[in-house]
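Task: sequence design from structure.
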């Protein structure tokens, strides 16, 4: 008795791959949404409890292991460094050229989003609070104002992602376009809304969210200072890539629009 094995019909494997890519991209995006929401609660000190279960038990100043301040500082710096290295290295054009020899181009962005979400989740999970207070205005009118401003920073981050194509930024557009059998997205240089005021409104939003707080602990300060370093390194690397991609258009834009603060006319 002999048996024969049928080969998949032409295109079947390709279609399955496209569907798998969409599933992968959606999963990475959903994870991002969950981790981003957790990050807001983490930084803002929002502890969410449902019944007897803590949905968000750890924040930048509460929960986590209790260790000496020196060890906490070392652990936190390592966690911040890992996140910053992943975020910066994987975003570089040179790394992408090498990486896409291993990972299909269509899921490269989704893989970046997945890695960034996992690194941020690990940072928040293993973060060691250092609770010595530098200032605390909780329970005052100033506290309410500072919380509102900080949340406005998060809102600035979120709204800016939609200005520059939210779903492309987080990898969904690429996998959906591929599933439809359409050419890869093309990019053009545009400066919508906030981008006409500052060159990096997403980074500005993060700075506002991280620094404006009614209670500044030593641990929170370490987090905020580290993000300043990461942001300025990220800007230098990102703008180098943007100049290579858009040439004279970006050079002229950089001369015309300030980096982060509208009131400061220093452009670069």
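Answer:
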């Amino acid at each position: 008795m002999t048996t024969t094995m049928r080969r998949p019909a032409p295109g079947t494997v390709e279609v399955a791959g496209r569907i798998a890519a969409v599933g992968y991209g959606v999963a990475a995006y959903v994870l991002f949404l969950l981790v981003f929401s957790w990050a807001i609660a983490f930084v803002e000190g929002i502890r969410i409890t449902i019944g007897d279960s803590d949905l968000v038990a750890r924040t930048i100043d509460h929960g986590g292991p209790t260790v000496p301040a020196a060890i906490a500082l070392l652990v936190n710096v390592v966690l911040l460094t890992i996140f910053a290295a992943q975020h910066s290295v994987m975003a570089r054009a040179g790394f992408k050229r090498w990486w896409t020899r291993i990972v299909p181009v269509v899921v490269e962005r989704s893989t970046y989003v997945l890695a960034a979400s996992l690194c941020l989740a690990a940072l928040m999970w293993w973060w060691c609070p250092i609770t010595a207070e530098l200032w605390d205005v909780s329970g005052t009118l100033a506290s309410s104002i500072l919380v509102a401003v900080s949340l406005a920073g998060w809102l600035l981050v979120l709204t800016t992602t939609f200005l520059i194509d939210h779903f492309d930024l987080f990898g969904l557009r690429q996998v959906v376009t591929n599933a439809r059998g359409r050419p890869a997205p093309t990019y053009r240089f545009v400066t919508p809304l906030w981008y006409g005021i500052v060159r990096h409104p997403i980074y500005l939003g993060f700075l506002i969210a991280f620094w404006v707080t009614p209670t500044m602990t030593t641990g929170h300060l370490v987090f905020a200072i580290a993000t300043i370093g990461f942001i300025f390194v990220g800007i230098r690397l990102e703008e180098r890539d943007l100049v290579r991609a858009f040439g004279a258009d970006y050079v002229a834009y950089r001369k015309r629009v300030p980096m982060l603060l509208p009131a400061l006319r220093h452009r670069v």
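The chain has ten helices and four strands.
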